[in-house]
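Re: [help] complex structure
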Amino acid sequence: MNNTSNQTPALPAGMSTGFLKTLGIAALLVLVITRWNDFISVFANVLLWIYDLLGNGPHMFGIAIILFTILIRLVTWPLNAQQMKGAAAMQEMNNDKEWQAIQKKYAKDKEKLSQEQMRIYRERGINPFGSCLPTLIQFPIIIALYQSITRALASTPLDLLKLSRSIIFPFLDVSELIPLNSKFLWMNLGQPESVNVFGFALPTLAIIVALTTYIQSKLTLPPSTNPNDQSAAMGQSMAITMPLMLGWFALTFPSGLSVYFITSNLLGIVQYAAQGKANWRNLLPGGQKQQQKK
Amino acid sequence: MRKKPVFVTLVLLIAVILGGCAGGPIRGTTWAGLAANDTTAYLADGSFVFAVNLNDGRQAWQYPAKANSKQLFYATPVFTPEGYVIIGSSGTDHILVAIDPNDINPETQSPAEAWTFTDAKDHWVAAPLIVGDKLFAANSDGNIYVLNLSDERSTKEAEQVIELGGRLWAQPITDGERVFVTSLDHSVVAIDAKTYEILWHEDLTSAIPGSAVIGADGMLYVGTLDSHFEKIDPATGEHETVLTTEGWLWGTPAVEGDNIFIADLTGELYSYNTSTGANNWPSIKPDGAVTASPLILPGYILFATESGRTEEDPGNLFAVSPEGKIMWNEEISGTKSGKIYTTPVLAGDLILVAPLGAEGYLYAYSLDGREASWSPFIPGK
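Output below.
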């Protein structure tokens, strides 16, 4: 028997850094939630600052949103990279023969299966939260961006009053910037978008949002050879639900948020493609099934 | 895999947070619009416009009968000579509607629509202005829509669309011959009330959320968000800054004889004399910010503050004498206190206040600051 009473309990090998990262992200999230109004203010100030730099003319707030989205993607690049890495590691494990054999062997013993799963995580240095926690960061960003766009556009007197109290950059003279020019291309960024086609209000942005979200989701689905792979099934399910959900948001909320979604999706596709991880075959009908057969 | 429930929960959470405003009655996206005659108060507050009987504080009716997700009401209601109540929607339908309080549906207890106007492209924040039989309706799309009130059409079309640009959030005013419009795009515009010709268009360097007023000297006075109180020649548009304030000027000034009363977002109250061109007394700062316009009452001026000394404190009413002394103050009471942004209204011998975020929708006070027995009004109670 090993005597471990005098030893500091060590984190499982390979999980310590992942665990610390997870803790760091969780602490960051708690900080963001507790200081939510300040978080929104920072977003609104950066947006207004970019808008001011662009000369605050027509269409410039739309361009400011696009540039701001690029900035956010750059800031969260390491998180996205970690997410991709984590997802790839999980997928590799799901396709692993040893793991598949263990799954079969302990199909009726959930506790043992769980122990074996943790052992494999330890041995291979996989952080089970490595792919999902970075995703967590995206949610406050989306909500904060939505709130900062509506606050910056100030479509109600109360929004304008809140905006006046959100200015933390001393060099921003918001009394001169107001009102922001909410026109971008054919859109009013403060209103949900639609184009009148033969008397029918066609929500073009919502369609583009849903389409680009679908493409991004499909491209990032790693190939799976394991028919019992639950994460692949979840990925397939999310590839359908996420475009519908974001499409609905685009249909309902100010079109400035749709500009963010589309820009973010396109940048995500570019990021995956640049890293050689885009799975273009998934876009073809039955592409996923063909890969499972292989 | 445990990721799935976590992810699905997050998706649902974001849907709830972002979609929190979808479905059901909405209230609190901005402050209410309030108007009243001697017997009835009209409160545009979110999904509904409420008519409140001022004798007993009971609801006379609400419009519409059921919440419509495309409609939100915050613009101050306006009365027509025929007795209709005109209200503009800040929702996505951009409708301007005249409702007939004398034609109540007995089943829904909701008044009938006398006419509607649906051609505006953005939401209604400003109350429209009636000049004779014409309605000058300022919309956030930057247009003034001139409607004929005597054409007896149930679906109105604009007799004239005056394109000014910017966002028009303040009720236009008139001297009988001209209509003066202030805009968030920093401008003040004079329009001929008969020909609709733009007479002059002046840039004041900052946004103007409130209306202008006409002083006893016949000049226009208006406050701006860069803390300038401007005097404008109504004939030419020539203007000069007569007062620089501590904070942003939001509400419409109030006029009593030679005196004009204004308040800013730092909470400073000012009394400017148009004949001397100077302040009557040094500004005073009772407590929080002021967005509401001062209300001239017999013997004093009523200022309503957003909050107390700290943001957590509720809004206050301050009765200030013409000499600048605080005569009394009253806090918005209740289990859930509110903030005052809407300009209080005098109805008979009652002061009406519509705070935001309070338990009650409408509070009533006597002229010496005592709350009325039926106050506050809460729909359904």
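The CA atoms of residues 117 and 282 of chain A lie 28 Å apart.
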